[in-house]
Amino acid sequence: MTTSRACMRETPQLGAFGDSFVLERDRLQMTELAKRILIVRPDEIGTEAAREYDQAGWDVVLLPDLASARPRCESPYDLALVAARLPDGEGLELVARLAGVPTWLWAEGEDSLRLLAAGAAGLIEEGLPQLEPQNTPAPAKEDVSDLVLGGQSPAIERLREQIRKLARRREPVLVMGETGVGKERVVRSLHATSSRANGPFVVVSAGALPGELIEAELFGHEEGAFTDAKERRIGRIEEADGGTLFLDGINDLDLRHQASLLRVLERGEVRPIGGRQKQVDVRMIASSREDLEQAVAAGRFRADLYHRIAVHLLYIPPLRERMEDLPLVLATMAPELAQDKGLIDLLSGERWPGNFRQLRNFLQRLELLQEPDEKIVDLAARELAHRRRERSANRDWLKLPLEELVRMRLESAMPVDRPLPDGIYEAVLAEVERALFGLVMERVGGKQIRAAKHLGINRNTLRKKLNSLGLL
After folding, report:
1. Where are the alpha helices (DSSP H) in 122-219?
2. Are residues 54 and 90 in the same domain?
3. Dihedrals φ, ψ of 60, to 5°?
4. 454 Cβ contact list (under 8 Å, min separation 6)
5. Is 186 inside any structural domain?
């Protein structure tokens, strides 16, 4: 069995390729830790790969070309599959952009040695790799209930209480939370503690399926309903009859499919393509990758469907809102690091926009990079500083909140691998005031009375500030 080197410390040596190797057809192993995958390929092979990974439980992002993939490379992934040839360039560009993510390439006639030398984790020789489940059980340190729902922080206690209350209800639920917070795991817990626990639990990732396949996937089809419908297929909604359907990424449905979903919620009816209406008893739980109220206002999402699906709102807090639970999270992910207070303090200072998934990937990277005599906290500090510098260079500054802009500026001026300077508060405050006062004075044409009014201070205070800041 061949596994990605992201999941192993040592990789088998295969011929001239050194510690890179070829991923043969039917030989890609899925691990418990690899849960989010980026697939960049515009044809049916890419679509079929997305379907296979989605059905195997992965969170799939499927994109057709470099233009659509570039802005998504900052998101956390566990694995990437990329076509070496894309409509608008070479897939090797994404190998560089996805630094730290094992990126496999469909070589398709390209020079294999060149692709491997450029950093590809491996090559897919032909066709679609077939997923295989692990033969060994998941280790105890990956216990999902401890990781996602464990802890004593106020945020996680509120979440547990919400789950207890919603488990007694039958109405739909809209789950809100950032990427990597464990939405599916929370929904599974909600299903497992409800009266539907003995019924099926079905997960559909709408964003992983092209628009033309969503209807057949959700509602099913009869034999001969369309050209490729060689046999009858039960839709995922019907599969969930008597249980729970978790529709991840409901915002990815177009308006036509939203109307069909509304009929399910209002009447409990599904109509397979080419078939007759059927009654189903399904509790619908959905999540969205965007603010649905804003999508309604923009005309991208039906208001009636929003009000039907958002009967109850379940908010899953990001990791940064429950940092009190970080020692428990570390004990679950990496028990050997859980007692390192210096590391815990360092990790607590980060925002972790990718949440559990990003933190797990980071810890795995530390494990791979750590030298025998190196302190893990020193390595972590260097890696975090490097990531901040890369993030600062690549972000669109005009779209960032002021607090984040200030933080990024301070992080670049005060790297974690250097001692903190003295007098930080006064120096930083002076910089902020100089920018603010200077801008306001420009906007009012240098008139101090108007500037003082807009700033909310009296004129004498303004004059003293302008003098001290060298603006007079």
Report:
1. 144, 154-166, 183-192, 211-219
2. yes
3. -105, 135
4. 440, 443, 444
5. yes
Give the separation between CA 296 and CA 75, rounded to whole angstroms: 25
User: Which ranges constitute the DSSP H helices of 1-130?
Assistant: 44-55, 66-69, 92-97, 112-117
The whole-number average pLDDT for the span 328-346 is: 86
Element (H, E) at 303: helix 303-309
Cβ–Cβ < 8 Å for 235, 188: no
Find the domain containing 445 and state its range. 424-468
Domain end position, chosen among 106, 132, 158: 132
What's the mean pLDDT when you consider all of the chain?
A: 78
How large a percentage of the chain has pLDDT more than 70? 78
Q: Which of these, 202, 215, 236, 219, lies nearest to 278 by C-alpha position?
A: 219
SS3 assignment, position 440: helix
Domain final residue pick, 261, 289, 315: 315
Q: How many domains does the chain have?
A: 4
Residue 320 lies in a domain: no
137 in a structural domain: no
Instruction: Please tell me the predicted confidence (pLDDT) of residue 235.
Output: 83
pTM for the model stands at 0.55
- 215 and 260 Cβ atoms separated by less than 8 Å: yes
Same domain, 384 and 464: no
Q: What is the distance between the alpha carbons of residues 425 and 427, in angstroms, rounded to a whole number?
A: 6
Residue 434: pLDDT band (50, 70, 90) is confident
Tell me the mean pLDDT in the region 72-99.
83
C-alpha to C-alpha distance for 424 and 157, rounded to whole angstroms: 37
Residue 174 lies in a domain: yes
Q: Report, in angstroms and rounded to the nearest whole number, the Rg of the chain calculated over CA atoms.
A: 26
CATH label of the domain that carries residue 448: 1.10.10.60
CA quadruple 47, 114, 68, 383: dihedral sign: positive
